[in-house]
Amino acid sequence: KAGVTQTPRYLIKTRGQQVTLSCSPISGHRSVSWYQQTPGQGLQFLFEYFSETQRNKGNFPGRFSGRQFSNSRSEMNVSTLELGDSALYLCASSPIQNTGELFFGEGSRLTVL
Amino acid sequence: AQRVTQPEKLLSVFKGAPVELKCNYSYSGSPELFWYVQYSRQRLQLLLRHISRESIKGFTADLNKGETSFHLKKPFAQEEDSAMYYCALKTSGGYQKVTFGTGTKLQVIP
Question: Given an 8 Å threshold on Cβ–Cβ distance, is A43 in contact with B43?
Answer without folding.
Answer: no
